[in-house]
Model the fold of this input.
Amino acid sequence: MDITAALGFLWDYRLALSVGLGNTLHFTALGLVFGLTIGFVVSVVRQAGHPVLKVIVTTYVEIFRGTPVLIQLFWFFFCLPAILGVELGNVFSTVLTLSLYMGAISSESFRAALKAIGAEQRDACVALGLPARVSVPYVILPQTVLRAVPTLLSNCVTLFKESALVSAVGMADLMYQGQMIADATARPIEILTATALIYFVIAFSVTRIVSFYERGYLARMRL
Amino acid sequence: MSSSFLNVQGLRKSFGGHLVVLDDINFQMEAGERVVVIGPSGSGKSTLLRCVMGLEKIDHGRIELEGVRYIEADPKSTKDNFVNIPVRNKVGMVFQHYTLFPHLTVLGNLILAPMRARGESRSSSTERAMQLLTRLGLESKAGAFPGMLSGGQKQRVAIARALLLDPKIMLFDEVTSALDPELVTEVEGLMLELAEQKMSMMIVTHDMWFAKRIATRVIFSADGRIIEDAPPSKMFTNPAEPRTADFLKKVLHVETIS
Amino acid sequence: MSSSFLNVQGLRKSFGGHLVVLDDINFQMEAGERVVVIGPSGSGKSTLLRCVMGLEKIDHGRIELEGVRYIEADPKSTKDNFVNIPVRNKVGMVFQHYTLFPHLTVLGNLILAPMRARGESRSSSTERAMQLLTRLGLESKAGAFPGMLSGGQKQRVAIARALLLDPKIMLFDEVTSALDPELVTEVEGLMLELAEQKMSMMIVTHDMWFAKRIATRVIFSADGRIIEDAPPSKMFTNPAEPRTADFLKKVLHVETIS
Amino acid sequence: DGYWSEVQKRGTLRCASAISPPYVMKDLKTGEYGGAYLDLCKQFAEVLKVKVEFVDTTWDNIVAGLQAGKWDMSPALNRTPARALVINYSGIAGYDEMNFAYLLASEKTKNPATDLSSFDVAGMRIGVMSGSAQDHKVTERFKKAQIVRLPDANGLNLALLSGRVDVAGADSTTNLLLQTANSEKVGLLEAHPALMKQGISFGLPPQLTYHDIQVLNIFLEEKVSLGSVDASLKHWSEVYLAGAK
Amino acid sequence: MGRYTWDFSVIAANWDPLMAGLAVTLQLTAICAVIGLVGGFLVCQMVMSRIAPLRWVAIGFIEVFRCTPALVQIIWIFYCVPFFFGVFYDPFYMAILALGMNITAFNAEAYRAAIQAIPSSHYDACTALGLSPLKKTLFVILPQAVLMAIPVLLTNTIGLLQQTSLVAIVAIADLMYEGKTLATQTYRPIEIYTTVAFIYFALSVPLSQVVGLCERRLRSRLA
Ligand SMILES: Nc1ncnc2c1ncn2[C@@H]1O[C@H](COP(=O)(O)OP(=O)(O)OP(=O)(O)O)[C@@H](O)[C@H]1O
Ligand SMILES: Nc1ncnc2c1ncn2[C@@H]1O[C@H](COP(=O)(O)OP(=O)(O)OP(=O)(O)O)[C@@H](O)[C@H]1O
Ligand SMILES: [Mg+2]
Ligand SMILES: [Mg+2]
Done:
């Protein structure tokens, strides 16, 4: 295959690909923000909430971890609006699904981190006479976040990758654009390889950051 | 009775309802006393200290400090005791595994409680903390994270952190048993210094030599009860109970400490 | 010289090329001797034992057992020493952290090496293993997994596992320092039993009382060198070197062991 | 108040866009939407004095999207009674026939019979756009062949060219464009008797009233009778073929 | 809420195709699970090999499959392999190829983590016991690695069950694909997508219970 011709071909479609990448990053970013918030709240509820609430959030986590993201997307796209009888925009449905999925997987990471902060640290807080209004924001929360960062970052990579599924419901993300161009031009090799490369470069960099963080920062603190 | 400095009455503590770890403990202590608790593993030494600190829900009994009841079993509540928090805050405790907060520097660990819980200003608490660190020869470590300290340094910082709250009594639970043998001395040295300043203490340790040096009184506990309570001179040379003698023999490999 | 039972000559060991941990160690030992190595943390005691076992690549020197050189620094190879494996297999070693294999039962741990490395039949190795376990009072634990044993039991099984290979010499690296104080006695008891049977041993320990009881000879090492080498009666009561005296004082809290 | 006044309040007319040249097309280099039916969407939006918004989707979602209220119209939708049970339709804006494209080089599809019997054999893979009218007809007609449902027209074309399917059953115009672009590779087969001839119109949300539908119909009536739909089809076919070269 | 009238008769009427799809899903899962268990171990051995080129190939393989979306992998393999080699294999085999390589990469990491978790003192103990390198690998390292990796391997396999739904996008007639087809044919997406989601969920939940059980038992045994 002629590399310069392939690059020239890709260059022609730079706009479509960058629009797709922009959408992918947009969906991922929104999913992250809402998903992490949901995840933290859920993990706290599971740790110390009302029993009824616990059952509800546990069921939620199990459902979203126990079904394919693809079916979740279809369900939120085509079932929920009809059941509720309200209009839900496509971007809204997409971000809703990704957020709920991210919330489910990251609640597990937060939970593990909360658990890893041994009872010893809580005892130390009592022995120092720290009330909850001090121990939670100054001792428990910072340690939870620091500890959860590596798994949360890999959850972010997971979400970024899973977001490719939104192409199946017609959201014009990177995957959708790549597929459209491949289909329309009947030249899948260049375009799909380029798409895969874009995903790879981003996901790979983030995983490097994760191991850098784990080796450097966390090791120094011996968390 | 209630004129004692520390007064533990009818203390009973079980885990899961059936494993009774402390069974009707009655124990008094005067200000300035240094009580060392010894006994076999699992005999409830740590649990006793944790109850005095208010870290465990007790089944029965009450604990008073300077005549004020600050912990009392509350049979109605399944989760908590009655706790008088201002009085409990006069008790300080240091644990076996350096429970410094790893995300804060040494100085950050020291000033957290004075600043956030006692409302002391940053400048005043920092000043007091730095004075204490200087006394301990640790002023150069103020900005270091706990992960960068040796075990002995960590434990001395943990003790300093408790001291900065001006406790009436300090509880030490095997604070040296996770340390390398040479590092033990620096921590024990600091405790001996506190002893000279007449700090009231309850100490759990497996180091009988240290026990002998620091204690004004030694308690031998087994199976959730206080078996013997005597001054160290008596306890280590001529214990009254055969079980105490037995235990000391096992731990010391020698008959008595001269 | 080369008639010694164990002969370490010109041993030098560094990590990463610059951190010299053992510096020109020369050391001989006769059959039946029990050498205890003491010294501050990081002084290279474990490293010395690991070199004798052949677990470390050495920079320089050689080690002989019964006159046969079995380890020699190989300056050409950056990864391995010259090792005479059949001779090295006459050395047995037990580590601080019970290195029983957690996926095998006690019996499985014991017969693994006889069966897989020595080619002994399953029935014969099982028989020998069961005899040994019975002697140790552990026959009921043969089918148990290590996770179900106490620390003291684990260490006794680990010693038994090494003994089943009929070693000429046993190396013990702080085998009791991770144990609860009462469990220490059962492991030390087993080692004393081996001593009575005239097993040659090199022992690293921080327990000076035990050192005094078991040693025929004590070596004090610091900074990668052997500082003092004397019988226990001399070492503990009247050490020649000020550094030794200093160290013993720190570790014992008393001037000498009577 | 009718449905269209709600659209006017919102200010945008949402049109589903699932690729099917020359009806619905998108120039990926520029991101411009085009095609004969999308032109009609644009013109209808002008009538309503609102902006037009094209929503990317795939064919198998096109009816579900109307049911779920994801868009206001699905252009270029074949009229079938089954669909009419769940959504509304505008009047007819054109007719759709289907035919079959196959690879000339393939042994399996040599000299196909016009009654389709040589396609309906075990091991034959017939590609269709998932959820399209052709999908339904082919599913009815073929009992032995395996039916492979692909999400859109381009995917179907690529599947045929890559050998993923042996035969592509699609809208005649779409197939004709494929054949014209790849005349040395692709052959076309017209079925006798015809498998289907269906009107194409706009699919509309189920809750529209008769009055709402009338609005669109009156608009369409004029466009069709003036021949502007045909002209537009011709134009976009040329654009497509120029791009495929 | 409640505007929608549910009608599950459509599920009963189309039970057979759904079950046929489920059979394909289960077949794909089972075959790829086996490939992943064996392949993962082999790739892990390559990663830990002394031969540098073998190591590089294996690490490259793992990173590529871990850092790109599974959907991209599947579509790449479906569209690009025929163009490269001019042949189109049976799509079922292509699906197995794509999913199998994906799970192999993830399992290789699980094995590697397990092997690295074996304390170095066990290697020393083997030397002290006179076990040769081969015997050491065979009787000490391998069994421990497999035991310790089991929970993660099982988790990956549950993930695989959900991943298989992606092949619906390239028209392999699995459960998801049958669901999608039925949804567009019957115009009752709500009942159908809900049922399909429930089937996936009903398969995943008992599996994750098993994982939890395994984890607890292993942890108590290997403690
Ligand atoms: N949180 C807990 N839940 C259940 N049982 C517990 C708990 N904490 C302690 N125990 C049990 O209570 C008993 C006493 O424990 P404790 O830690 O007080 O003993 P100890 O005298 O401090 O022993 P050691 O010398 O080993 O520290 C033990 O049998 C222990 O297993
Ligand atoms: N694998 C290694 N890599 C680098 N340095 C090492 C390694 N093993 C040991 N060291 C260093 O070698 C020195 C001697 O270690 P060694 O474990 O032999 O001491 P030790 O006398 O056994 O101490 P301890 O009483 O704490 O067990 C220490 O400074 C240690 O940090
Ligand atoms: Mg304790
Ligand atoms: Mg050592």
Remarks:
- Chain B has a mean pLDDT of 85.
